[in-house]
Write a structure and sequence with these properties.
single chain; 269 residues; alpha/beta; Rossmann fold; 2 domains; 43% helix
Length: 269
């Protein structure tokens, strides 16, 4: 195995000794602040799930039961992925005048951190499942934002969203739910926003053909494998849910990162 890694330039071999390359020391050593081990572990779990795609297609059943996943691995993977885009994203969205943000399904809270760092008068609530929130609290201690960011445990499919807020972030959440679940979540967000409140939806959104962007179309298969009813949705579908719920001034923003996630914003009257 070490010889193979040397052949792939992940380690260097001298005689019978092996050493990390600068690349490996930076990205593959746990003590490195820039390591991507969380992403690799998460993708490894996804690869195991994708191995069952043939059975899912043959049986016609969209899901064979949710697989166990490590909350720590998932939170770390989302941090590794999100930290590279969260700061730019916070600059893309104008939260001037907002005093409170709810980050739904916010996992490690990295987006809340960069929003609060940019807007000094802003406080945030990261709302996620109890198993995830235990990890969230570890990241909040690292951010050292004091009481400006709180972690609240709950399930947005069964629980009322906590508090009243001026803005709500729904980042990469809708694709995990079926259409009814998405409508319910949008309605819940509407209910927790103050008048004039802003909803921010960030996700892999398809055009009306459902074939483009290609990455979003493939991601829909990932949701088929790993969720009960989730998939990628079109911009038109999400826009319709927002308008039917009562949101106004729906706007489409450009890609929020190099992975092609799009952003829709709307206001509660």
């Amino acid at each position: 195995m070490l010889n193979a890694l040397a052949g792939m330039k992940f380690v260097r071999k001298r005689g019978e000794r092996f050493r990390n390359t600068p690349f490996s020391r930076r990205y593959l050593v746990s003590s490195s602040p820039r390591n991507i081990l969380g992403i690799l572990l998460h993708f490894g779990n996804l690869a195991k799930a994708w191995a069952g795609l043939d059975d899912i297609l043959v049986s016609g059943k969209p899901h064979r039961g949710r697989r166990e996943r490590s909350a720590a691995v998932f939170a770390r993977a989302m941090y590794d992925i999100g930290r590279g885009v969260a700061e730019k994203f916070a600059a893309q969205i104008d939260l001037s005048g907002c005093k409170s943000l709810i980050d739904i399904g916010g996992s490690n809270g990295v987006f809340s951190y960069f929003f609060c760092r940019r807007y000094r008068g802003l406080k945030a609530v990261v709302f996620d499942l109890p198993g995830i929130i235990a990890e969230t609290k570890k990241y909040l201690r690292r951010y050292a934002m004091g009481r400006r960011i709180r972690a609240v445990a709950g399930n947005y499919t069964t629980d009322e969203l906590p508090g009243r807020h001026d803005a709500a972030l729904v980042s990469h959440v809708l694709h995990a739910e079926g259409e009814d679940g998405c409508r319910q979540l949008v309605a819940s967000v509407y209910g927790c926003l103050n008048p004039g409140g802003l909803i921010i939806v960030r996700d892999f959104l398809l055009d009306k053909t459902r074939t483009s962007p290609g990455g979003a179309a493939v991601f829909a298969v990932n949701m088929l494998i790993n969720t009960t009813a989730g998939r990628s949705y079109t911009r038109g579908e999400v826009t319709r849910w927002l308008k039917e719920t009562g949101f106004k001034n729906v706007r489409l923003l450009g890609p929020s990162d190099e992975n092609g996630a799009l952003v829709l914003t709307a206001r509660k009257p």
